[in-house]
């Protein structure tokens, strides 16, 4: 199962990634630079490889970053099936990643959003965008949905997915990160006096480094944090929104 993490900050921060251990992994990183979105995918990332050195030496600078890693599932997969995925809606970029959704979950799609690959995660992403588009038919770039209304639709959508397996999902439009997990998530607030910091995520296989002088508005979110002080565990089936450096619990989807 994929390990998912997110980094949300009120202001852009520089994040370096180091790979721990000897086994190669597949790794995908999605982040925002202004209104633009960048997706970086490496299917065979291993310690000491050129790409691993690049990730360590050239930090990702963004206020919203999604990271997805997998030991086995993605190593043999086609590049178009790798996460995170990126689409556009209402003139904004959206980045999405998920894990734990059963392959049998196959929602019908219209012609507005269609998957490029065969991944169930990409299909769910297309389905989610269709739900957003139909829920806010008058929305456009100059008139986006109110955050409270968007939060309600996303929370309802997440609740409908819990029958599809041990689902975890992350979604960002560059302004916020929405997250949900059947099995619960954990988040950790990083304050300026804790810098520089180095935190292990994804069962200890990835190490995050940050030395920026950030404000007290930075949060790490993970589906598989390494146990140490400061992580706050969310209840099972809890949706959460990270915006403006704050954590907002959404109405539970039970």
Description of the structure:
This protein is α+β, with helices and mostly antiparallel strands and about 250 residues long. It has a single domain (about 5-250), classed as 4-Layer Sandwich (Glutamine Phosphoribosylpyrophosphate, subunit 1, domain 1). About 15% of the residues lie in helices and about 40% in strands. The chain is built from 3 helices and 15 strands. The protein has helices at about 50-55, 120-135, 145-160; strands spanning about 5-20, 25-35, 35-45, 60-70, 85-90, 90-100, 170, 175-180, 185-190, 195-200, 205-210, 220, 230-235, 240-245, 245-250. Strands 1, 2, 3, 4, 9, 10, 11, 12 and 13 form a 9-stranded antiparallel β-sheet that branches. The protein has a 6-stranded antiparallel β-sheet with strand order 5-6-7-8-14-15, with helices on one face. α2 crosses α3 (about 145-160). The model has no long low-confidence stretch (mean pLDDT about 85).
């Amino acid at each position: 199962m994929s390990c998912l993490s997110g980094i949300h900050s009120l202001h852009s921060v520089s994040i370096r990634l180091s790979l721990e251990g000897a086994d190669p992994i597949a790794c995908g990183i999605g982040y925002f630079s202004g209104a633009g979105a960048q997706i970086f995918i490496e299917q065979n990332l291993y310690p000491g490889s050129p790409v691993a050195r690049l990730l360590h030496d050239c930090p990702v600078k963004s206020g919203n970053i999604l990271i997805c890693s997998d030991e086995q599932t993605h190593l043999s997969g086609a590049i178009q099936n790798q996460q995170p995925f990126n689409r556009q809606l209402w003139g904004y970029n959206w980045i999405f990643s998920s894990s734990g959704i059963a392959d049998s979950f196959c929602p019908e799609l219209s012609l507005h959003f269609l998957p490029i690959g065969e991944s169930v995660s990409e299909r769910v992403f297309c389905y989610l965008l269709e739900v957003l588009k139909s829920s806010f038919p008058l929305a456009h770039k100059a008139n986006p949905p109110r955050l409270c209304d968007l939060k309600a639709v996303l929370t309802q959508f997440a609740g409908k997915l819990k029958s599809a397996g041990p689902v975890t999902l992350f979604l960002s439009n560059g302004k916020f990160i929405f997250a949900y997990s059947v099995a619960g998530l954990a988040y950790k607030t990083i304050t300026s006096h804790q810098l520089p910091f180095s935190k292990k995520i994804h069962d200890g296989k990835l190490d995050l480094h940050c030395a920026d002088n950030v404000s007290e508005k930075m949060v790490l979110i993970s589906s598989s944090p390494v146990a140490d002080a400061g992580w706050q565990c969310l209840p099972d089936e809890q949706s959460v929104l990270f915006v403006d450096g704050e954590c907002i619990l959404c109405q539970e989807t039970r």
